[in-house]
């Protein structure tokens, strides 16, 4: 069986902004409706989000259930106009701004409780697996962004101090030091920041 050296295919990125978004209470409400309804709703919602990717120059990494993951500063347009991964050492100075602009999500027209977490830092990207291989991101930056989302208040964007420093023009509200269990860099109880999700006017349904 052919085996590729994933280490040689991996790319180290010094600074990428990672965003996770999900819908509070979605998992429990999912049990109350037919699967076809859930699929139709998420398809329409994510189609709305997808339309913003190229507008703000961010890359959709994946969706898992109601969780939507985006990266800024990871992908660029090459000389022929095709998408390609930024090489080692290349940093998009607007990587956090792009993700924050995307984070001001469209108004879904539904009483959704969306929460968003963002963190900026180093990651490693690469393709893993031989059956249905996937382009994935690895590193503590990904884990921290996920924890920012899981500890966010519904209707807010929750960011780390590292990310806030890259987005100093935004109006942030300090959390007073939310404890993010298991977080590496920054430690427990470090200052976090919240920003209301400023929705744009187009709906689902």
Spell out the key features of this protein.
205 residues, alpha+beta, Alpha-Beta Plaits, eight-stranded mixed sheet, 7 helices, globular, A/G_cyclase_CS, nucleotide-binding, peptide receptor activity, membrane, nucleotide binding
User: How helical, in percent, are the residues?
Assistant: 25-40%
Q: How many domain modules?
A: 1
What is the CATH topology? Answer: Alpha-Beta Plaits
CA radius of gyration is: 17 Å
Instruction: Flag low-confidence runs.
Output: 184-189, 199-205
| CATH secondary-structure class | Alpha Beta
Backbone shape: globular
Mean pLDDT: 80
Quaternary structure classification: single chain
Corresponding CATH superfamily = Nucleotide cyclase, GGDEF domain
Task: Characterize the structure shown.
- This protein is an alpha+beta fold and 205 residues long.
- The protein has one domain (6-201): Alpha-Beta Plaits, CATH 3.30.70.1230.
- 27% of the residues lie in helices and 33% in strands.
- The chain is built from seven helices and twelve strands.
- It has helices spanning 6-9, 26-30, 35-50, 53-56, 95-103, 140-150, 161-166; strands spanning 11-23, 58-64, 67-72, 75-77, 83-85, 106-107, 114-128, 134-138, 156-160, 173-174, 192-196, 200-201.
- The strands form three sheets. Strands 1, 2, 3, 7, 8, 9, 10 and 11 form an eight-stranded mixed beta sheet that branches.
- A hairpin with a 2-residue loop joins strand 2 (58-64) and strand 3.
- The protein is globular and about 45 Å long.
